[in-house]
Design brief:
It is a single chain. By secondary structure, the protein is of the alpha/beta class. The protein folds into two domains: 237 residues, Aspartate Aminotransferase, domain 2 (3-Layer(aba) Sandwich), CATH 3.40.640.10; 100 residues, Aspartate Aminotransferase, domain 1 (Alpha-Beta Complex). 36% of the residues lie in helices and 17% in strands. It is built from nine helices and 14 strands. The strands form four sheets. The protein has a seven-stranded mixed β-sheet with strand order 2-10-9-8-5-3-4, with helices on both faces. A three-stranded antiparallel β-sheet has the order 11-12-14. Strands 1-13 form a two-stranded parallel sheet. Helix 2 packs across helix 6 and helix 7 packs parallel to helix 9. The longest helix has 20 residues.
Length: 354
């Protein structure tokens, strides 16, 4: 069976080389006679995987010793709670920028824990600097770097006095950025890093000291730092896949990957910008390189588009259930050939139905 082109928003496409290596090593990992799925998280085989994963992500993100790289189960949704539990003290206010559905979920969770101020409420878009109303003395400022549902992405990040916290689930390591601008970055793995159910967390170590003693031990960043993300049995196989993906990114190079991602997105946006049949839904100045959202003239045509694309091996193009339409998620591992096939299909579909 041949593989399709996978445009799912997450769980999403993984590099073919990563899947092939995991397949080769599945039954007998490094001559150990057992799978990494069966190996002890305290054993030498897994220890080497874990250490390389930490080192690779530190290298890719340019982390100094002031930062810790952590692997935390629960995905980004767990981080919606862990961030305020650890960083938002009694009597403090956290600034949240509402740029869409995922930012909204983070806001709702933080409001269960402490005082939240909406520094900008832009719905499905990214605010301008003039629209930001930050709180003096805020505990931190939270943003979502890329909204998968609306297809809106921060192109530059705001300068803030308070520590800047970012949910980068859907665009982390798709482009270079300065980690030193952030106090904490987290990312659910299932877009650009690996399987679902785990998050990569990069935190400035001093911020981990903020957690109140009432925060449960397993929900403290300090615990993960002190125990090297091994306080309890971690999701070892997921971290193994994340390690293989980090190798792949290092081999490709973050700069070339970024240029390739922009070029891939440009192929689709050029068709949307031609006007007429397809209409993009995000403002041009903040449209995402990872999640391209657009509409057709009517919902019946959209349903036909999705069905016919699937028959052509172009899978996962249905827009999020909350907004409908079409969404092409073109993360790092989505090959250029897949984008070219999608664009060719879009042109042919327009000829038949325009």
């Amino acid at each position: 069976m041949s593989r399709v082109y996978n445009f799912n928003a997450g769980p999403a496409v993984l590099p073919r080389e990563v899947l092939q290596e995991a397949q080769r090593e599945l039954l007998d990992f490094k001559g150990s006679g057992m799978s990494i799925l069966e190996s002890s998280h305290r054993g030498k085989e897994y220890d080497a995987v874990h250490a390389e994963a930490v080192a690779n992500y530190k290298q890719l993100l340019g982390c100094s010793d002031d930062y810790a790289v952590l692997f935390v189960a629960g995905g980004a949704s767990m981080q919606f709670a862990m961030v305020p539990l650890n960083l938002l003290g009694a009597g403090q206010t956290a600034d949240y920028i509402n740029s869409g559905a995922w930012a909204g979920k983070a806001i709702k969770e933080a409001a269960h824990i402490g005082q939240v101020h909406i520094a900008a409420d832009c719905g499905k878009e990214i605010p301008t600097a003039a629209e930001l109303k930050l709180t003096p003395g805020a505990a931190y400022v939270h943003l979502t770097s890329n909204e998968t549902i609306s297809g809106a992405q921060w192109k530059t990040f705001p300068e803030t006095e308070a520590p800047l916290v970012a949910d980068m689930s859907s665009d982390i390591l798709s482009r270079p950025f300065d980690i030193n601008q952030f106090g904490l970055v987290y990312a659910g793995a299932q877009k650009n890093l690996g399987p679902s159910g785990i998050a990569l967390v990069v935190i400035r170590k001093d911020l981990a000291e903020r957690a109140a003693p009432t925060v449960p031990t397993i929900l403290r960043y300090k615990t993960f730092i002190e125990e090297n993300s091994l306080y309890n049995t971690p999701p070892c196989f997921s971290i193994y896949i994340m390690m293989l993906v980090s190798r792949w990114i290092l081999k490709k190079g973050l700069g070339p990957l970024h240029r390739q991602n922009a070029d891939k997105a440009g192929l689709i946006y050029a068709l949307l910008d031609a006007g007429g049949f397809y209409k993009g839904t995000a403002r041009p100045e903040c449209r995402s390189d990872m999640n391209i959202t657009f509409r057709l003239p009517n919902e019946t045509l959209e349903e036909t588009f999705i069905k016919e694309a699937s028959k052509q091996g172009l899978k996962g193009l249905k827009g999020h259930r909350s907004v409908g339409g079409i969404r092409a998620s073109i993360y790092n591992a989505c090959p250029v050939e897949g984008i070219e096939a999608l664009v060719a299909f879009m042109k042919e579909f327009e000829k038949k139905n325009g």
